[in-house]
Amino acid sequence: MKLSLAFKALGSLCLLLADGFPVSENLPPKIIGANHVKIKAHLGENLFLHCEAFANCEDTLIYWLVNNTFPEDLPSSGKIVESDESTLDEGAILLRSLLLKNVTSEDLKSSFTCVVINAAGMTQKKIMLTVRSDCNAGKNRKH
Ligand SMILES: *[C@@H]1O[C@H](CO)[C@@H](O)[C@H](O)[C@H]1NC(C)=O
Ligand SMILES: *[C@@H]1O[C@H](CO)[C@@H](O)[C@H](O)[C@H]1NC(C)=O
After folding, report:
1. In its keyword annotation, does this UniProt entry include Transferase (predicted)?
2. Distance from residue 39's CA to the centre of ligand 1 (Å)
3. Which of 10, 49, 102, 136 is 20–30 Å from 123 (CA)?
């Protein structure tokens, strides 16, 4: 399993990277923002889902799962693409995005999970999509 390999790859040393916070205890990563999010999407559009987390640790992994599967292992491979990981603040903040090309009704039934793991623990953010209604946009009602 890739997931257990990921766990094995983590070192046991867990250092706080942010300056000015001399914390000796190991802390699990912390996702920035809500842990459950509903996002309104238009069918047919390209949609980016973003995930940001405080690493709290030197060896912290951030990745996305779709239906609890790695995006590259999905049957519809290539339609949902994970960006490379990036960092802010000298590694204190991790970022990773998921690009949904051409949002379909299947995507509305899928679960999108951002997972962040370090030696001290794991945290997750779950995103569900709903269809954006055009009722208030006024675009189709112009005369
Ligand atoms: C987007 O998906 C729909 C439904 O699956 C398909 O009919 C359409 O051709 C796709 N558009 C693009 C640009 O791939
Ligand atoms: C995720 O699971 C749902 C429900 O089982 C399915 O309809 C959907 O197509 C799956 N999504 C992907 C991207 O395979």
Report:
1. no
2. 20
3. 102
CA of residue 112 to ligand 2 center, whole Å:
10
For 134, phi and psi rounded to 5 degrees? -95, 5
pLDDT (average), residues 34-58: 94
**Quick one: average pLDDT of 32-45?**
94
Residue-level pLDDT at 79 = 93
Going by their DSSP bridges, the two strands 47-54 and 30-31 should be labelled as antiparallel
- At 42, list the tokens: 């238009």
Ligand 1, residue 102: give the atom nearest the CA. 1
pLDDT digits (tens, 9 = 90+) for 2-20: 444 444 444 444 544 445 5
Is 108 in contact with 131 (CB distance < 8 Å)?
yes
- Please tell me the CATH code under which domain 2-14+26-133 is placed: 2.60.40.10
Tell me which residue has its CA closest to atom 4 in ligand 1. Answer: 104
